[in-house]
Amino acid sequence: MTACLPDSAPEPVFLHPWHAQVFALTVSLNEAGHFSWPNWVAQFSQVLARHGLDKDLDGGDDYFTAWLETLEMILAKDGAAPAPDVERLRGDWERAYLETPHGDVVRLAASQNA
Question: Are 112 and 92 in contact (CB under 8 A)?
Fold first, then answer.
C-alpha cells in the first residue's frame, strides 16, 4: 500500500492572468527580435530600482507593473507603440469595460479601434 502525500500543490507563478500575459508578450517580442534581452534587463533594472525607492516591492502587482512600464517604454522608444497611442487605447479599454454589463464580453467599438 502506498502512502498518500499531503496536498502540496505548488504556489502559482503568476498571481493574476495579466502578469502571465505581459510576461508572455515580452518573451514573444524578444524572440521576434524587437529588442535584445540584455537591453530588456538593463531597462527593467532601472525601472525596478525607481519603483523600489518608495517601498519594498512584493513581487506581485508592483513587480509586473514595473514590467509593463518597461515594455511600454521600450516599444515607445522604437516607435512600435508610441506613448500617446498606448494611453488612448488604455482609455478606450477602460471606457469599454466600465460600460459593459458584468459578465458580458468587453469589446472596443469599431471607431475606437481605428
Answer: yes
Which parts of 35-82 fold into alpha helices (H)? Answer: 37-51, 61-77
- Asked whether 19 and 64 are in contact (CB, 8 A), the reply is yes
pLDDT in tens, 48-61: 888 876 667 666 78
Question: Rg (Cα) of the chain, in Å, rounded?
Answer: 18
Structure confidence by residue, pLDDT tens digits, 6-32: 666 677 778 899 999 999 999 999 999
Alpha carbon distances (Å) from 1 to 4, 5, 6, 8: 9, 13, 16, 20
